[in-house]
Write a structure and sequence with these properties.
The complex is a heterodimer. Chain A is of the alpha/beta class. Chain A has helices at about 15-20, 85-90, 115-120, 140-150, 155-170, 185-195, 215-230, 240-245, 265, 275-280, 285-290, 300-315, and strands spanning about 45-55, 60-70, 75-80, 100-105, 110, 125, 200-205, 230-235, 250-255, 255-260. The chains are: A alpha/beta, B alpha/beta. Bound molecules: adenosine-5'-triphosphate (ATP) and magnesium ion.
């Protein structure tokens, strides 16, 4: 599949989030978002939360005054304490929830008047609990549901189902009943169902939950591939290693607010540890070990080893 | 009479399934011990939980061979009520564990103890203790059906703890918890094992949790025990990688350093501890 719209430099090393925000494409004034005619790669809309607050019908306040801009083609991880509002935030992207006050904009257009079915062509959301999403008696039917609703059929539909199942490693299970799959594979199936829609924006709510090492690697590949294609990828996760290795930008939430927002090096760097711990989070081990050894911000294993190698090189020279 | 849970030569096949999900599994869980279970997805961890807790085959059917004994008694010979009281099971998808009949988290956590016929004062005391153990006292008045994923998981854990069974079988209890919540639950489980003598079988992908609290770890591979032993030794074993199990962060980092050809030093070991 060819790339989506204009976007960030896919090959650049992780820079600061500010750089992405600045390289964002100008908001277009298309009235709709993400046109999906066969063959035409939809442009990737930018996302903007404008002073968004949200309270559930029972009065629970889940988001307060969220301001967040995600440019076209960014990869963003959202982390934070249980109940801090992460899922609530992403459910605003596809219209499942509407702000109590404030606005959510796609390419500058308020999503409020846009019908959920239409938003679904722009934003694919994989739920935290796969059982909230799955309903069909057959894996392939399940995966076909989304794209079919977008008007895809025939050979193209088959191809999408096949490719999505292959991407998550469920190609051998096309005719299985989803409920005969274990939890971890139901979770991958829910992911495949969203991938098959080939939306310009991908939002994944805790995609690595319940996955073993290979499952996590698969999810990592899915994220990398979508990012490489120019799509916007947003994932919620409690797995700080996955976050540090797979995303260019990390947003930290606490009690309905955004308290940190930056590149992994910044958010997991020593200067942010106090804020992180106050948010019930922990920096990844390479970051802690790197700081103890005076190696600077080494938030991934690879960065840690590279910094050690640099130091060894300097000493022996 | 011997105490503990003991599996000997256990094989199990789900009703209607072509393949065997557990093959010749032996396992021992003594009171006061925490035994971790790891393995790739579909390696049989959840099935093992169902078998240990006596749900398979008694409730869900299927065919079991071998012996599963709790405190010397074959689970097949136990009444479901006795079994449930002795062994509490937390299944993998905590959301399915809610009773669906209570209006508040407090009532939800008190639901089990109430059914045991305990005096109200005892129930109340147990509920507060369980909520406190996992740090969710503030959720007590909330509707259990309207919580975040991780909050729901904490409620499910508290509900099991409030039953105070002699044995706890927990299938990925921290999968949706934030790092601080994960630590809190791990500490609570270690404390329960130590102070009350409960035996805990703990399925976890987060091997860092097992490194922290498990006495022993059992590694499953396609329904059979690949190997098992003291937690520290098993978790440092390089075979975990091929078996699809993530090693603890410190083990991974040490391995990464050594593979790169750098020298491993005491200073490095200290920085990783
Ligand atoms: N259906 C609901 N009705 C009322 N309150 C809710 C509902 N769902 C979530 N909440 C509350 O809204 C707040 C934010 O919840 P949300 O699910 O967004 O958190 P989260 O960050 O995704 O947490 P987790 O990491 O546990 O998934 C919490 O206080 C939660 O209890
Ligand atoms: Mg959530």
């Amino acid at each position: 599949m060819s790339g989506f719209g204009p976007g960030v430099d896919r090959s650049a090393p992780a820079a600061s989030a500010g750089a992405f925000a600045d390289s964002r494409p100008p908001a277009s004034d298309r009235s709709g978002v993400g046109s999906t005619g066969p063959g035409s790669a939809p442009a990737v809309p930018s996302i903007e939360f404008e002073a968004v607050s949200f309270a559930y019908p029972d009065g629970t306040r889940a988001l307060s005054q969220i301001g967040l801009r995600i440019g076209s083609g960014e990869s963003v991880a959202i982390v934070g304490q249980n109940g801090s509002g992460k899922s609530t935030l992403v459910r605003h992207l596809n219209g499942l929830l509407r702000p109590t006050t404030g606005r959510v904009l796609l390419d500058g257009n308020d999503v409020r008047p846009i019908h959920v079915a239409r938003l679904a062509s722009s934003v694919g959301l994989a739920f935290q609990n796969p059982d909230c999403q799955l309903f069909s008696g057959r894996v392939s039917t399940e995966v076909a549901f989304g794209p079919r609703n977008l008007g895809i059929h025939g050979g193209e539909l088959e191809e999408r189902v096949r490719a999505a199942l292959e991407e998550v490693g469920l190609d051998a299970e096309a005719s299985t009943n989803p409920y005969d799959l274990g939890y971890s594979r139901r979770k991958l199936l829910a992911l495949a169902s969203v991938l098959a829609m080939r939306t310009p924006i991908l939002a994944l709510d805790e995609p690595t939950t319940g996955q073993d090492a290979r499952g996590v690697a698969r999810v990592r590949d899915v994220v990398a591939r979508a990012f490489g294609e120019g799509r916007t990828v947003i994932a919620i996760s409690h797995d700080m290693r996955f976050v540090a290795e797979s995303f260019r930008r990390v947003v930290v939430m606490r009690e309905g607010c955004i308290v940190l927002d930056g590149a992994p090096d910044v958010v997991f760097g020593e200067a942010a540890w106090g804020e992180l711990r106050a948010s019930y989070l922990e920096p990844p081990l390479p970051s802690v070990a790197g700081a103890r050894l005076g190696l600077g911000a080494t938030v991934t294993e690879a960065a840690f080893v590279a910094a050690l190698e640099r130091r060894a090189g300097t000493i022996s020279r | 009479m011997s105490v503990g849970i003991r599996l000997d030569g256990v094989s199990y096949r789900y009703a209607g399934a072509a393949a065997t999900s557990l093959r010749n599994v032996g396992l021992e869980l003594e009171p006061g011990r925490v035994v971790g279970v790891v393995g790739a997805n579909e390696s049989g961890k959840s099935t093992l939980c169902l078998v240990v807790a006596g749900l398979a085959p008694a409730v869900i059917g299927g065919r079991l061979e071998g012996s599963v004994r709790i405190d010397g008694i074959e689970t097949a010979a136990m009444r479901p009520h006795d079994l449930a009281q002795r062994c509490g099971l937390l299944s993998q998808n905590a959301a399915t564990q809610l009773s669906g009949t209570t209006a508040t988290v407090f009532e939800e956590v008190g639901f089990g103890p109430c059914n045991l016929g305990l005096p109200v004062a005892d129930v109340v005391q147990r509920v507060w203790a369980a909520l406190g153990a996992v740090g969710i006292e503030s959720l007590a008045p909330r509707d259990p059906a309207r919580l975040s994923g991780g909050q729901g998981q904490l409620v499910a854990i508290a509900s099991i703890l409030a039953l105070r069974p002699r044995y706890l079988v927990l299938d990925e209890p921290t999968s949706e918890l934030d790092p601080a919540g994960t630590k809190l639950v791990a500490e609570a489980l270690a404390r329960i094992a130590r102070d009350t003598g409960a035996g805990i079988l703990l399925v976890e992908h987060k091997t860092d949790v097992l490194a922290q609290i498990a006495d022993e770890v059992v590694v499953l591979e396609r329904g059979a025990v690949a190997f098992s032993g003291p937690a520290a030794a098993v978790l440092a074993d390089p075979r975990l990688v091929e078996l699809g199990v993530e090693s603890p962060a410190a083990v991974r980092l040490e391995r990464a350093v050594r593979t790169s050809g750098l020298e491993w030093s005491a200073a490095l070991a200290k920085a990783l501890s």
